[in-house]
Design a protein that fits this description.
By secondary structure, the protein is α/β, with parallel strands linked by helices. It folds into 2 domains: 248 residues, Carbamate kinase; 146 residues, 2-Layer Sandwich (VC0802-like). It contains 11 helices and 17 strands. The chain has an 8-stranded mixed sheet with strand order 3-4-2-1-7-9-10-8, sandwiched between helices. A hairpin with a 5-residue loop joins β5 and β6. α8 packs across α9. One of its GO terms (cellular component) is cytosol.
Length: 408
């Protein structure tokens, strides 16, 4: 019998009619022979309203414990109403909140931004499996946790997504369905560009990068808990049908540790294009990159300064790229010179944890400093760091970085 975990966001249960529509969708899946675990957020804007009330009432003189307890009321209310709605269709349901002896989500004691204790949570998830075996649909508060002292904790804004994927992992679920106010992952924000299209599929890696760069469809930490064989999709509440099409989240592509270190296997060359204040000249980057693309030369790294653009290309393409860019410099009044530099190596490190790890760059670069290794260039995003070093140092840097991060 298939087991699915369904998470309803705040907008999708924003009023009584929407809650009934959502409960009906859950009951339909249950009646088709599936086991269903429901995770609910607070009803639309409830958490914001509670925080505002606390701020006004206390002038921000409030402890983390007090604030966590107050804002937990949003999810606890949602769970009670949703379970009642399910039972109004004649199906047994039970709400599970941190005061329940069946509560599964155990965390550390960082009350307002807690980390899940996965081992303990997996043990306690047996309580949820027992309810499912009894034919009961559990409705579990998203966003909330409980530490080992029994204090209510929260998983940070958007933490209900984390709850859903953690439970799916611990229960060995077949599928996670995220029900939200959009029809899936879009090519861009449809509120900004009306022509945005829904994607049928997106990889875990792409979804994580979208989420860490501001897309609000899914909490980036949730994907840390997705197993490769777990089906997952994001759909709109408007369908009222959990089998409705949305965007499938595929992967991760391989079972691997959260930190991955890769070294580009061939030497690269550094090419620098200079010109007075070219950083402020519109179209310069487009001219450079499009000209190289025309000759099928790939750029593996690029950085800009006030008076320069630095490119990293495969060494075998370097002389050709140098000649092409020199022709561009001769023709373009905004550019003054181009040079080709030494051979370099590229090491990239990626982890979804980087966005929440202060000091990660210094942790990676400190061993290089101790070994007197010069960094030619370094670039970073919220989930990855790319380091360029002299080619002769590349293998050593690769091993140093792997050692310091415990990468695979």
């Amino acid at each position: 019998m298939a087991l699915i975990v369904v998470k309803f966001g705040g907008t999708s249960i924003g009023n009584g009619k929407r809650i009934r529509k959502a409960a009906n969708a859950v009951v339909k899946e249950y009646m088709s022979g599936k086991k269903v675990v429901v995770v609910v957020s607070a009803i639309n804007k409830t958490t914001d309203e509670l925080i505002k009330i606390v701020e006004d009432a206390t002038k921000n003189i409030v402890t983390e414990k007090q604030l966590a307890e107050v804002i937990s009321m949003g999810e606890m209310t949602s769970a009670r109403i949703f379970a009642s709605a399910i039972e109004s269709f004649g199906v047994k349901s039970e709400y599970i909140d941190p005061f329940s002896d069946k509560w599964p989500i155990i965390t550390d004691s960082n009350l307002l931004n807690a980390e899940v204790d996965l081992e303990t949570t997996k043990k306690l998830s047996k309580n949820i499996l027992n309810l499912l075996d009894e034919g009961i649909i559990p409705v579990i508060c998203g966003f909330l946790g409980k530490d080992k002292e029994g204090h209510i904790t929260t998983l940070g804004r958007g933490g209900s997504d984390v709850t859903a994927f953690v439970l799916a992992k611990c229960l060995n679920a077949d599928e996670v369905i995220i029900v939200t106010d959009v029809s899936g992952v879009m090519t861009t924000d449809p509120n900004l560009i009306k022509s945005a299209k829904r994607l049928e599929k997106i990889s875990v890696e792409e979804m994580r990068d979208l989420a860490t760069h501001g897309a609000k469809v899914l909490h980036p930490d949730a994907l840390k808990y997705k197993e490769p064989n777990l089906r997952a999709k994001i759909i709109s509440f408007k369908h009222g049908d959990l089998s409705a099409p949305g965007t499938e989240i595929i992967g991760p592509s391989k079972e691997k540790t959260l930190k991955t270190t890769m070294s580009y296997p061939e030497p690269l060359s550094v090419i620098a294009v200079v010109g007075e204040e070219i950083l402020y000249k519109p179209g310069i980057l487009a001219k450079i990159t499009s000209r190289l693309a025309k000759d099928n030369i790939n750029i593996l790294g690029i950085s800009t300064g006030q008076n320069s653009v630095t490119l990293f290309v495969n060494k075998k393409d370097a002389r050709k790229a140098h000649k092409i860019l020199h022709e561009l410099v001769i023709k373009d009044k905004d550019l003054s010179s181009v040079s080709i530099g030494k051979d370099v190596g590229m090491i990239s490190v990626s982890s979804p944890d980087f966005v929440t790890t202060p000091g990660i760059i210094s942790k990676i670069t400190e061993p290089l400093k101790k070994h007197n290794i010069n960094i030619v260039e370094i670039s970073s995003s919220q989930t990855s760091i790319v380091i360029f070093v002299e080619w002769k140092d590349c293998e050593k840097v690769y091993n140093l970085v792997r050692d310091v991060l415990g990468s695979s």
